[in-house]
Structure formats: C-alpha cells, structure tokens
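Lab notebook, bench 4. We co-purified these components, and the gel suggests they stay together. Before we commit to crystallization screens, I want a quick structural picture of the whole thing.
Request: model the full complex, all chains together.
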Amino acid sequence: MTEDMRAEPKSAGLDGDPIEFAVMTEIGIINQLAENLFQSHLPKGMTVAQFSVLNHLLRLDVEETISELASAMQVAQPTMSSTVRRLEDKGLIQLIHDPDDRRIRRVAVTAAGAQLRNNAVAALVPVAATLRQNIPPDIWQVILPQLTQIRVLLDQSRQP
Amino acid sequence: MTEDMRAEPKSAGLDGDPIEFAVMTEIGIINQLAENLFQSHLPKGMTVAQFSVLNHLLRLDVEETISELASAMQVAQPTMSSTVRRLEDKGLIQLIHDPDDRRIRRVAVTAAGAQLRNNAVAALVPVAATLRQNIPPDIWQVILPQLTQIRVLLDQSRQP
DNA sequence: ATCTAATATATAGATATCTATGTATAAATG
DNA sequence: CATTTATACATAGATATCTATATATTAGAT
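Here is the predicted assembly.
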C-alpha cells in the first residue's frame, strides 16, 4: 500500500496542470494523511472533527453557538450540528438554551469532555514531535503565513 | 457566514498548540475551501474525487486497477471502489476484466468521460487564474516543494 | 496435487461533509 | 399590531471517507 513509488507522484502528480492545482492536490493528500495519523492517536470513537470542537472551546475557554463553531471550523452548519450531536451523545458537551433567545443553544464542554481532550492532546504530543524532528523547523515557520494567505484568499472567494 | 472575523482565526486559531498542528489545521481549512470552490465549477453531479480519477487517467494516458488508483490518490481501496462505481454508473469509465487475472478490473475512461473532463478543466482555468492573480507567484513555487516534503514524511509515517 | 498465504475487490457500517429545505423564534416594517 | 424578513437550528438525501471483514482468485509450499 506504500510501495507505489512509481513515476509521477513526486510533486503531487499534476505535472501538466497549473501549479495552483498541484498545490491544492498536495494539500488534499496531506490533509488525508494527517487526519488518518491524528485519528490513529485519538481515543477510540473520537474523530478529528470532534476533537477539534473540544479543543477550540477549551483553548479559548468559551461557549459558542453551533453557527459560531461552524464558522470557526469553516464547515457548513448542518455539519457542525451533526458533530455536536455526537459529542452530546457521549456526554462530552452540553447544549445550553439561551434564556433570551430560544433559537440559540450554546455548546459547553463537560468535565468528561475536558478530561478526554487533555488525554488526546497528550497522545498527540509525540506525533507533533515526530513531525518537528523530520522537517527543518524553518519550514513550519515559513509555510504557515503562506498557507494563511492562501486560506484568506479562498475564504474571500466564497459565494455567500 | 463570512462575517466571522473575530479575534482568533488569524493563523488557523491554534495559538496555544504546536506550530505543526497550526499548519495542519490551516491545511484542513484550505482543503475544504478549495474543494468547495472547485466543486462549484464542476459539471452538475461531478465531484472533485470523481474528477481527479478522470484527470489522472487521461493526463497520464493509462488504464489502472482500482488499487493502483487508490494508491495514487492516497485513499483506501473501498473508497476508490465507490468512486469508480459512480463513474461507471454515469458511463464515464469502463471496467475491463484482465484476461490473465480474473481478480483484476482496469479502469478505462470512455469518450464521454474524456469530454466531460475536458469541459471541467476548461471551467477550472479561470479559478486557477484567480488564485494566480491574488497570490504572489513566488509563493506557489516556494510552497509546493515544502508541501511535498511534508507529504512524503506523512506518507512514510503511515502504519502499513 | 492439495493446502495455505497473498492479492484484488466487494460489502457493511460508521462519521464527515455538502446542498436544499423545513421549523421555530426574533426582529423589522408597514 | 399584523405581516414580512431574517436568524438559528434541524432534517433529508447524497458522496467521500475510514476500518473491518468477506469473497474470489492466484501464487506458494509442502
């Protein structure tokens, strides 16, 4: 399954395509490999999407609505509704009705959710270490603002 | 839906996390935005995954097995089986049995598939142009080999 | 030659994702 | 105040993705 180092995929396998496509193809493959790698180090049943929600809320120490979470993660609202429901089913978050606006439910991480996230972060530390050791540190520093620039551009060219 | 320029997501919103995680988060968001953007310019019913298969086979002018395609796209074999089946349902590819090994079926693009792919490429050209115009060209040249380096590392640290 | 191991693909079940649409509530407008 | 518009969320239906497993076929090993 890893023995397919044939002729082309040396640079994402899109030699004849515009370089922008090649970058996007490479990003797509990295995203898949990284998600699989991260997932394999997360607790049983916990997905990257679910972990990201817990991590976001706990890191910023906030409670947010489903729509706010969807915007923060750049996913559609029904996608976040689904992820939040699964977290709720496991008792990792609670949905708190807003007393002033009954349309709104805010996502609050439970103690169980906080503990599980902390365990997950600890399990991911060696993964980050491996990445850090095998890629020159400058690369990470240089590539992040470039990616941010591309992300902002893509975000702007969305149709609202 | 785009008006969420609050405090944090200036650099993928992972300030407290290792920079490797921040890069991966940014890549995840770019991947989603790019897939949505590309998809919105593809013919009705055609997905990025399906287009990628057609494009791969036609660009290299080859026929490949499902497993070979899965390796090339870095997805699991059942994933590729599913994508190939949908392309077959639309008459865009044909599955050709190998006369010497009856386990194998090779994916061959039909004339309809080739035409549809060419139309899709044409529709994507202005998308690439927009990206090229809004990001300094050096960035694309610089970022691609860096991404490749990361992708190769991630590919190596897969558990087979 | 038979029995076992490896390979190619398919099937099942789960989550994430999208678009399109429905429902309830709140705000704005006349 | 009644009607309309906007907002927050849920539901439905579709594709992509994974892991785990089953089936069929080929290759290898006694």
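The longest strand of chain A covers residues 93-97. Worth comparing against the SEC data before the next meeting. Helices of chain A lie at 19-40, 48-60, 66-73, 77-89, 111-134, 137-156.
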